[in-house]
Amino acid sequence: MPCTILVVDDEPPIRKGVIAIINKEIPSPTIIAEASNGLEGYTLYQSLKPDLIISDIVMPKLTGLELLQRIREEDKETPVILISGYDEFSYAKQAIALHVTNYILKPISRTELVTSIASVIQEKRLASPAATVDIDALRSEAQTLFLQHLLSGNIETMEEVEDTMTNLWLDVRPSSFTVLTVSTRSGQEGQALANAVKALPSAQVLGSVSYQNSQVVVVNGRQAEARAVAAMVLRSDSLEPASILVGIGTTVDHLRAISSSFQQSGAALSYFPYYPDRSIFDQRDIDALPVTISTAQIDTAALKDVLLIEDDEQLKQWVADFFDLIMDRRKPPLSYIKGMCIFLLSDIQKQLVSGHHIKEIYFKDTQTLLKGHALTVEEMRWRVTETLLEIKHTVIPRSWVENDRTIHMAKRHVQQHIGSIVSAVDIAERLGMSATYFSTYFRTKTGETFSNYVNSKKNEYAKKLLADFELSIEEVSQALGYTDYRSFHRVFKKMNAMTPSDYRRRIREQCSITTE
């Protein structure tokens, strides 16, 4: 007997494509009807009573789920294959509740579509959609998506959690949950790690998902039960025990809070490079060594001056001082150290791009530079140093030569003689130009006069010197090359809308607030 198939999709290319696949690949005689929206599809369903319905989810007038809802109110048996462009568990769980035969994601796989249709026709499951072959796999996929949403914190209310568990036929009785993040020292062996996690007893594990190079396991129970599950993973036959690493999060008392346990399990795991003989890490590792340094305490402006003016040894010393600063506690998590290194390289690049017109394309991606599953502190120190040396010796010279060597030489001279009186006449003589031509050239290329540029650089340096309370304002003035304190006072006030004394007073007040 012929099989009647109704295809419902508002996009003609997809609708015609599905029909073409059926006509070419399905050997059994078929009668195909098509509809361009959900309401038209429902009308055709009522008149044709098809043997199979293939429908898109997102359509005008009636969505695929609304169409299926109407059909199920009067017909519990007709199989339906839903097509969606959205990998969302909310769609999948509704499809399960409405006894869908299969749920196919766009772009549509020819093999998956043909297999789904053939199983309906050849195995005669038209009258028993609840027993179709794909329903268990679909429910498993939807449960995994649900777990991913819980771990990412995208589900906030208990009502939504309970509603989803009902639709996915989940019977979750434990009132406590603890998350494990399981990885390996090499970051490899992904399939072996997944197999070891899948072998865990279902009674002790709510579920697991893959995350980057790790497996995230939600344990039914508190930390004692979580440690027992971690011990099972360590005894896995598919992995070397010495290669396995487990981070244990804190216990939470309801499912919607497991995202916090997940975050803590990852944070605890980041301490493993400090303890080569340990495999399990937990909240105690995090609590023992709190981090106190913020990005505000990293002086990238000083680093910029080192890159522009100082030699390699001074640059290496700056990097050493930077690591001493962020390692003020003996063992901060490596994720924190990596984050501070990324901030350092990103911020210095922004300063060079905005303040010195160096093209962004010359810089390497800092995320890629520090990419690696288990970088040690020394490896990060080496990468930061090498990157800064490359910026100093390759990026900056190349950009300045391509932009304008004359401007580069003028700015470099100002940086190196910030404590002297620098005039356009001095620079012009060094470059073999007339002072008038140089001044016009500089303004044309940079958009500002040479004197304004010199004053802005002296102003930056003045603020640093004024922050040193041991120097008098007269000494600051002299260090900047001013022979007359009143000239310094006038220029500073014009550029900052306050006097040097007012600026220093504000710094003192801020220091007082910080100390208190």
Which structural class do the helices and strands define? alpha/beta
The CATH topology of the largest domain: Rossmann fold
Distance from N terminus to C terminus (CA atoms, Å) equals 87 Å
**CATH H-level superfamily of the largest domain:** Response regulator
Looking at the overall shape, the CATH architecture of the largest domain is 3-Layer(aba) Sandwich
What helical percentage do the residues reach? 55-70%
Shape: elongated
How many separate domains?
Answer: 4
Low-confidence stretches: 125-134
Number of helices: 23
- For the biggest β-sheet, the strand order reads 2-1-3-4-5
Q: State which percent range the strand residues make up.
A: 5-15%
Q: Report mean pLDDT, rounded to a whole number.
A: 78
